[in-house]
Amino acid sequence: MDYTELNPQIELFINRHATPGWIIEEATTDFIDLTYVFKGTAYYTVDGAVHKVNQGDLICIPKGSRRSAIADPAIQLNSYALNIHLYDLRGKDVALPFPLVSHIGAPEELLSIYNELTFEWLKKNKGYELKSRALLLMILHYYFKCLHYKDTGVDRRIQKAVNHILIHLHRQIEIDELAVIAGVTTPYFGTLFKKTMGTSAKEYINRMKINNAENILLSGEFSVQEAAYKCGFEDIYYFSKLFKKIKGFPPSWILRETRAVSHA
């Protein structure tokens, strides 16, 4: 099967910020559970086998599986959970050809789509279902590209640096420390990073921090100042200016929109 004629339907989408005691009770799924872990660790039991899922991992649980899960209380679990139904154009069920657990990392392209889906799902404007399905297809395409079409090839030295960035978004990150992790000189690291990622290391760090801040603000649980602090910014003015430069709107706009949705 070439998977070019997919008709996905979203049963549930959650931008999950789990409490330490979060669990999923054991039950048989009548949907595909496609959960991407942005931060933290969870333990999923699928058909009697336990699977540890870490930051940057995707778990794809087939329809009809016995599933339960718990979070590691030491690190808050942040994840994007999609419960979906997948059909071909004749209405027949389609199974995804992905491993149960895969490491995806935290690519900017994927996080941007998830953030947009979160916003559409929260607002629920007229036609949001159609837009949400389109975004789901983009997410599925990304996973097919990584896991099925095998379109990978990031330099392992840069991947190590990227992983370090994603783990330490809560603090200031120096280019020198990334070069040490990659095992190269600082000037060469800058050249290699831009060649591999298509952007400078500093620009990548800022964009990932702002993506993380956007995700935090979309939860509706934190102020702009708290989101800035959680992403390693001490200067709220600089944070707001950088946020608007990258996203095209100020961080306060997200809070206004999420509050308007919650009171609608």
From TrEMBL:
The keyword Transcription regulation applies. The keyword rRNA-binding does not apply. It comes from Cohnella fermenti. InterPro entries: AraC-bd, Homeodomain-like_sf, HTH-like, HTH_AraC, HTH_AraC-typ_CS, RmlC-like_jellyroll. Residues 159-257 form the HTH araC/xylS-type domain. It comes from the Bacteria. This is Helix-turn-helix domain-containing protein. Gene3D superfamilies: Homeodomain-like (1.10.10.60), Jelly Rolls (2.60.120.10). Keywords: DNA-binding, Transcription, Transcription regulation. PROSITE patterns: HTH_ARAC_FAMILY_1, HTH_ARAC_FAMILY_2. One of its GO terms (molecular function) is DNA-binding transcription factor activity.
